[in-house]
Amino acid sequence: MAYVIAEPCVDVMDQTCVKVCPVACINFDGKGSPDRKLYIDPQECIDCNACTIVCPESAIYFEFELPAKLGVYAQIDALWFQDKDAARKLVDKQIPNTS
Predict the structure, then answer these.
(1) pLDDT of res. 1
(2) Is residue 16 part of a domain?
(3) Residue 99 lies in a domain
(4) E runs forming strands in 1-99
(5) What is the tens place of the pLDDT at every residue in 50-95?
(6) Which of 10, 30, 77, 98 is the most buried if burial means most Cβ atoms within 10 Å?
């Protein structure tokens, strides 16, 4: 995995990073989705750093620079591409949905 989208993105989802990604590796389900954050596909990311530069929330970290307290977000991003519901549950466990 190259980059990880962490907690600052939860319930924000600015999507500027989606627009600049040259390989379209940042995903979420469309309008009306249960997603509360964006997810980077660890198999598709090419380490270009374009997303980190434009993220207004500073929510995107290089995998090896991810603070320990946010480490679960690496697992969440990778899991979303295998089991979306399980990844969403992990997000909710980290930050309970109040809506």
Answers:
(1) 57
(2) yes
(3) no
(4) 3-5, 26-27, 39-40, 60-62
(5) 999 999 999 999 999 999 999 999 999 999 999 999 999 999 999 9
(6) 77
